[in-house]
Please model this.
Amino acid sequence: MQLVFLGAPGVGKGTQAECVAAELGITKISTGDLLRAGVAGKTRLGLEAKHYMDRGDLVPDNVVIGLVDEKIGSLECQNGFILDGFPRTVPQADSLSDILRKRQLVLDRVIYFVMPREAVIKRLTGRRSCPQCSAVYHIDYRPSKRDGLCAVCGAALVQRNDDKKETVELRLAVYEEQTSPLIAYYRKHHVLAELDGMGSVDDVQARLLALLPTS
Ligand code: AP5
Model:
């Protein structure tokens, strides 16, 4: 199965992609995680991406398209995948069509996460992340049981640079301008399904699974 999770920053795409990928036995491809790994490893690509990410802008299309193409072609994606945070622009969506076509794959569903803006801001500004293993927490909704430390690997949790209030506003503006046109784009292709992102992680997951095609 090939899926895209679409929606504003903070709506819970990454959290759901993690659970649903495990449930379906497919691979989660998060362009945000791939880029952050490049930043942490100080690769050429990571250093180029860092400036854009820290200020809440999108990384140039050619950088992320290359990353996704390579990942989709890898062995770990042969049973299917969930794209979390890609595509984010119309040129990225066009490139994804080409990438899928050349591998004779189809896009089964685009899940569009819907949530009120205020709730999204609360989720983003309260998020804490593990810089080592990328596990995600929230100070109110998903606190770590190990007080400020990652429950998985023990590293000290941090707030992402782009989760500070000022940058969050900019990311939401960038989403409205550059990514939200993809809602109409995929509606036109008859693959879009709307998902209410409010409620517990389990409730959202149950609603999401009900939107997937049955094979
Ligand atoms: P990226 O990492 O993709 O960030 P994003 O899309 O802005 O998405 P987020 O990770 O912020 O949110 P999410 O929807 O995954 O929410 P989450 O599940 O974590 O991208 C970062 C940057 O990289 C971009 O700004 C850009 O610079 C660059 N980039 C990435 N992809 C790119 C692309 N394709 N093109 C160009 N540039 C790109 O949840 C948020 C919080 O809420 C967490 O604390 C979580 O614990 C909590 N939570 C989740 N679900 C629930 C629930 N049901 N109830 C209560 N709390 C919940």
